[in-house]
Design brief:
Blueprint lengths: L7 H16 L5 E4 L7 E4 L8 H18 L15 H24 L9 E2 L1 H23 L4 H15 L87
Length: 249
């Protein structure tokens, strides 16, 4: 076993889980029957009137402490949620706070007969251990760069991202023609053509290529052909000067 493989927070949380398990067998509740017969009754965290709020958080901290202590025994834990010290400390903080909350509720609800009976010394040992684990977890969380404000902001951002977005009315989306109140399409606005070529579509004969329209790569655009004249003359090349007519001289 090599404890040097564990950080301070991991060592404290592992030790806290073991101490809580040991303290759970000590008296958590005690009751005295009176001075005449000198009878008394005590119960551990596993027996009545102790119950779920005593042993359940103790088992959570014990299990988490065992997982954190595995690297000290040469066992690697391939869990992404435990990859960073901040995550490990934050989980320990949550479990410790949960344990303190349940311990406090259980201590306030222990039965009392004629003002006699309540938490015993084992209960206070467990409460102090849980508080110490929570304090060290919070310290390790802040030292690793964590912040409770950032955690709250992260939850708010996720809740906002999961919220449904506003639904647009039909006919108002991108690429759809605007509709009149009676359902008829509106006329194109000033500066818009009523009929446009699609982006990337070839130009029509006699029409210059529009935006996004081009000829084949490396080839010049084709010129429109001219029809034959009535005199049977061939059309002239627009790039060459016209041939003068035959003068007869």
């Amino acid at each position: 076993m090599d404890l040097n493989k564990l950080g301070r927070t991991e060592q404290v949380l592992s030790g806290a889980g073991i101490l809580l398990f040991i303290a759970s067998f000590f008296p958590w509740y005690s009751y005295s029957f009176g001075a005449f017969n000198g009878g008394s009754y005590s119960a551990s965290a596993w027996s009545y009137p102790s119950g779920f709020m005593d042993w359940f958080p103790m088992l959570l901290l014990l299990g988490y402490g065992i997982v954190l202590a595995l690297p000290a025994f040469g066992v690697a834990v391939n869990a992404p949620v435990l990859a960073t010290p901040a995550n490990r400390a934050f989980i320990g903080l949550v479990l410790s706070a949960f344990a303190v909350l349940l311990f406090a509720i259980q201590g306030l609800t222990y039965p009392s007969f004629d003002g006699v009976g309540g938490p015993s010394w084992g209960y206070f040992v467990g409460l102090i251990v849980a508080l110490a684990a929570g304090a060290q977890s919070y310290r390790g969380f802040t030292q690793a760069g964590g912040s409770l404000a950032k955690v709250g902001a992260g939850f708010s951002a996720r809740a906002h991202a999961a919220a449904p977005q506003n639904v647009q009315a039909p006919g108002s989306g991108y690429g759809q023609a605007p509709q009149q109140p009676d359902g008829q399409p509106q006329a194109p606005a000033y500066g818009q053509q009523g009929q446009q070529q699609s982006y990337g579509a070839p130009a029509q004969p006699g029409q210059q290529p529009g935006y996004g329209q081009q000829t084949s790569y490396g080839q010049p655009p084709q010129q429109p052909q001219q029809p034959y004249s009535s005199g049977g003359q061939q059309p002239q090349d627009p790039q060459q000067p016209p041939t003068p007519p035959y003068s007869g001289s």
